[in-house]
Amino acid sequence: MVLDDLGSSLRSTLDGLRGKSRISEEDVEDVVKDIQRSLLSADVDVSLVMDLSDSIKERALSEEPPSGTSARDHVLRIVYEELVEMVGESTEIPLESQTIMLAGLQGSGKTTTAAKMAWWFSKKGLRPAVIQTDTFRPGAYDQAKQMTERAEVEFYGDPDEDDPVKIARDGLEATSEADVHIVDTAGRHALEDDLIAELEEIDQAVEPDRSLLVLDAAIGQGAKEQAQRFEGAIAKGVDGVVITKLDGTAKGGGALAAVNETDSTIAFLGAGETVQDIERFEPSGFISRLLGMGDLKQLTERVERAMAETQEEDEDWDPEDMLEGQFTLHDMRKQMQTMNKMGPLDQVMDMIPGMGGGLLDQLPDDAMDVTQDRMADFDVVMDSMTDEELENPRVVGQSRVERIARGSGKPEERVRELLEQHKAMDQMLNQFSGMGDADMERMMKQMQKGGGGGMGGLGGGGGGLGPFG
Fold it and tell me: Which residues on neighbouring strands pair with residue 367, listed in sequence order?
């Protein structure tokens, strides 16, 4: 994730303030040095870093903590607010008819981003279309066609046409019934003059409502020159930046430099290779996750979207029944399928207050892989169970455990783990069903204070969103 080193280092420094009622100048200096070191190593512009440092130092030493607020929480809140201010607001992307043009170097992830954005718009109730104008890169047409098929959105391209401007015009006409047109332009290995000239021509032909610059998160200081050239090539300028490939070891600071150079904002974040691996940039949630404070808004959106997709696949399943009646292994399987639709588990964990950041850093490197493997094993085990056993797991005794293990090819221990996890989740759901709104609100506030809780026992703390014991 962008600036991940900052989050880890800063959390460690802030934890050293626990128990203190007042903060010293030395404490503030330690916090500021951590921020400077991490941001500079992440290729964030020096002037941005120094302005941020000065603001944090001034506020931390001059502002009195609110009554009942610890020194740690006071400084954390200041750092949070200043970082949100530094990254800026999210690019305005209205849910209405529009044409969006994507620009960027070859390898930045434009074609993948085009399909991801189209998928995102389709989930918002709009009809998107991707127009592929890249005649330079071999395979660009095939890649775009394949990605848009996965996203289940409209696509236009012409592999036999050499003129990208003609493709753009023809594409707009052929997909005229679409609400949102996403025009993917060609990239090059460097900022060649012919790339800029071609981009200018396409820009004049399609007259986009907004233009987004797509940047690989690992771009570094090179983002500054890119941003300047692309800004000059687009008539209305760059409206926003899309940061891609955040699932790698990217530092991401270069993107902030690009935002600063173009006087724009960040529109989307891309992580992963599937069309679902995209999210709108929300500065408050982004920084909250960075500092281990979670992002309940993004988590809720992912849960609701995944639930809706699971229900579309099986109209007879209603998640509300889990709180009103018996919780079966059928329900548990649907919950597992829903979790898989929410994206990589480490990203989901980052969104849960108290579960991201420092706690994730303490887990073994293969913890997430082990969890995913266990979920896959549970699915295979359930394939070897009868309808009676899936509806009422209590009937499964030792003889049935042995039969299920033989049929699934999994050890008896895994079968028992499935039954134990089901029992724990059933007990948790019974507790939730008896909660009033006030009880739920108190629980969520406790989580936001860093109390943890759990996703089925991963990292300790009890039941949660899935079978992760």
Answer: none
- Give residue 221's pLDDT: 64
Element containing residue 52 per DSSP (H, E):
helix 46-62
Strand order in the sheet with 210-216: 154-156, 128-132, 180-184, 98-103, 210-216, 240-244, 265-270, 278-280
Q: In sequence order, what E strands does 198-333 have?
A: 210-216, 240-244, 265-270, 278-280
What residues are paired with 98 via a beta bridge? 180
In whole angstroms, give the CA distance from residue 232 to residue 74: 43
Torsion of CA 409, 412, 415, 420, to 10 degrees: -170
Is residue 89 classed as helix, strand or coil in its secondary structure? coil
Classify domain 4-87 at the CATH class level.
mainly alpha
- Domain 292-451 indexed as CATH 3.40.190.10: no
Strand-strand pairing, 265-270 and 278-280: antiparallel
User: Which parts of 136-291 fold into alpha helices (H)?
Assistant: 140-151, 164-174, 193-206, 223-233, 253-262, 283-290
Secondary structure percentages of the chain, helix, strand, coil, to 5: 55, 10, 35
CATH number 3.30.70.100 given to 98-287: no
Q: List, for the chain, all residue ranges whose pLDDT scores fall below the cut of 70.
A: 1-16, 18-21, 42-43, 190-191, 220-221, 247-255, 257, 289-302, 318-325, 343-371, 431-469
Alpha-carbon dihedral 371, 372, 373, 379, rounded to 10 degrees = 110
pLDDT in tens, 169-200: 999 999 999 999 999 999 877 667 888 889 99
Beta bridge partners of 214: 242
Q: Where are the domains of the chain?
A: 4-87, 98-287, 292-451
> For residue 372, what pLDDT is reported?
72
